[in-house]
Amino acid sequence: MDEGPKGPFAFILFLCSGLLAWNAFAETLMRSTASFVGNAGYLKKLPLPEQIFIAQEACGGFLTAAISIGIFLIFAAAIAHDGPYVQWFQAIPLLALFLGFAYGLGLVFACLHVFFRDVQPFLNVVVLLWMWLTPVVYRETILSNAQHPHPVIMQLLQLNPAYHYVAGFHDSLWLGHWLAWQRWVICIGITLVVNLLGMWVLRHFRSEIRDVL
Amino acid sequence: MTQTERQPIVSVRNLTKRFKCYTTPAARLMEWLSLGGIKKHSLFTALDDISLSVRKGEFFGIVGPNGSGKSTLLKILTGVLMPTSGSYEITGRVTSLLELGTGFNPELTGRENLINSGRLLGFNERETLSRMDRIIDFAELGEQINLPIKYYSTGMVVRLAFSLFAHVQPDVFIVDEALSVGDVGFSRKCFERLDQMREAGCTLLFCSHDLPAVRKYCDHAMFLFQGKCAYLGSAAEATDIYVEAMSPGGKAHRLGVADQDAERAEHRAAAELHASMPEALSSIFELGDFDRVASVSKGRVGTGAVRIVAVRTTDGNDRPRSTFNVGDRMRCHILSLAYDDADQATVSCQLVNRMGVGAWGTNHALRTGQTTPVRRGRWLHAVFDVKLDIAFDTYAIDVGWGDASGKGHVFDRITAAASVTVSPGTHLDFIGMARLDCESEVTEYGGAAAGLAKDPVGAAER
């Protein structure tokens, strides 16, 4: 494919543009999952809203990722002579949406983890697997090019919610493109739905979580 | 403002809390996967239909043994747990001392922790800052306030926490067994502060095992027993009923403990013994003494050749009494019934202090050199007349009958068959465990002036 920057830094630019965001997502999800159990001391003593512990992880993840992506972009512009582009700023709301997605999932898994303490280690493996099912460190175009034609996989990829965010990062940071409005709609939609699900799960289990902790 | 004009600030109606107990997480998973088709949990009722109301400015105590639901109730009122059914309503701001120092970060200084914890409790930084000086003053931490609290002693952390909570002026203050920490001086200061808060219109919910404090500070109290309200009314009465119910042989059984049938059988047996005891002893032993011994199950061993049926302490004139002053004479009466013959038996009596240390003990054969022949079907009334030259404390009385011929059989031995409290009285002329028979004298001689030049202990320098 002839898109994207060329030269010795091409791959590293591609890799970082997706991986940094993914790492923030995975880390936030894992930490959120453990956060109810980890903060049992507070939850058992203070009438705090449970979700603040997840929100704390999500905000922490956002800050860390924003800084590391910022440093990466400075590197890209200064050393790899790629950019700067105005399109890069799309990464900020996109990162917020991605971590919002992690927050929603975190609510669900944090609740489950209180009841089943095996959830977190199990999820650890699932997230690793998920990363390889999502084109984070490889380009999705290799799934549909002439040598490896897998059109069905391309369609299945649309069902992977994380794909839309990661593709958004690749498009805005690596290619310097404006994201299609459909992509924004999908990302906002997924984040919204997962958050509603998370809120419902938390409301349903809230009382029992406090009992079990 | 009169009592009747005041609105209830805390009102609890038919509050019930049940916990679902699963033996393993797998059991829970099974239940979930079956969508409720399979029931794998058992329900534990921690609170059963509790109703109460507390008016503004009132101090309300909650007493009860461990596991009676006190903390669960306070946690629900704090908002940490949610009730299974029933409702509660609290008007105003609630602060709870469920555990002192919750939310303190060991790396932050005392000052920073105050602000941080204040935020956790829902007070903004300005509110806490405006009271900072008073809080620090109250905690008496001095310069240490600027050190990270990991360098504090446990007591200092407690002081800091209490000071914070006591100065943020909540409408309802919930305290769960927290004031017993800290030294005597600070503890008193805490209660003084609570009095001030009461005057300012603060309502206190106080759960404690410190019964004197409950009696002294609370207007009303509830005695919780196994999640049920066993008594609701004046604090003095609630604590009395609690103490009575929990004492050995008390009516804890009647409040729903264990086996009611066994209890009734024990009581019948005790009543029969009481009715058939020798007439001459009826002024000393009461039915309650028989009941108490009959209900002892743990701490009783022996072959049963002789059974102790009642134990009672009296003063020198055989009037029932269980509190004495140091130096008083106590008579410990032990009534027993022989179920078998024994040629050489002896009766023993021992005082054991609260630390489990045997303070004194003897048996009749040891003391007199004579064993007691025992005949089946006869009553045996033994008396130990003791001068209580002993440290003031509460002592359990262990009594027993045994074989004195060297075979070492124990016929009956009861641990803590009765208890006796020895008070310091008006004048205490000794310290330590025992008032040993002691004479002391000081004699003065003249003419040692030369020796003063040398100062063997360096007293002059001090």
In short:
The complex is a heterodimer of chains A (213) and B (462). Chain A is mostly helical and 213 residues long. Helices cover 73% and strands 0% of the residues of chain A.
What keywords describe this structure?
heterodimer, A: 213 residues, mainly alpha, 8 helices, B: 462 residues, alpha/beta, Rossmann fold, Coagulation Factor XIII, Chain A, domain 1, 3 domains, seven-stranded mixed β-sheet
Structural description of this entry:
The complex is a heterodimer of chains A (213) and B (462). By secondary structure, chain A is mostly helical. Chain A has one domain (10-212). Chain A has helices spanning 10-38, 40-43, 51-78, 91-115, 119-133, 151-157, 161-175, 181-212. In chain A, helix 1 (10-38) runs parallel beside helix 4 (91-115), helix 4 packs parallel to helix 8 (181-212) and helix 7 (161-175) crosses helix 8 (181-212). Chain A is globular. With 462 residues, chain B is of the alpha/beta class. The longest helix of chain B is centred in the middle third of the chain and has 17 residues, at 260-276. Residues 1-5 of chain B have low confidence and may be disordered. The interface between A and B is medium-sized, with 17 and 17 residues.
Produce the secondary structure layout:
The complex is a heterodimer of chains A (213) and B (462).
Chain A: H1 10-38, H2 40-43, H3 51-78, H4 91-115, H5 119-133, H6 151-157, H7 161-175, H8 181-212
Helix pairs in contact in A: 1-3, 1-4, 1-5, 1-7, 3-4, 4-7, 4-8, 7-8
Chain B: E1 8-21, H1 25-33, E2 42-55, E3 59-63, H2 70-78, E4 85-90, E5 94-97, H3 110-120, H4 125-139, H5 154-167, E6 172-176, H6 184-199, E7 203-207, H7 211-217, E8 220-225, E9 228-234, H8 235-246, H9 260-276, H10 287-294, E10 300-301, E11 306-314, E12 323-325, E13 329-338, E14 342-352, E15 358-363, H11 364-368, E16 372-374, E17 379-387, E18 393-403, E19 410-423
Parallel strand pairs in B: 3-7, 3-8, 5-6, 6-7, 12-19
Antiparallel strand pairs in B: 1-2, 1-4, 8-9, 10-19, 11-13, 13-17, 14-15, 14-16, 14-18, 18-19
Helix pairs in contact in B: 3-4, 4-5, 5-6, 9-10
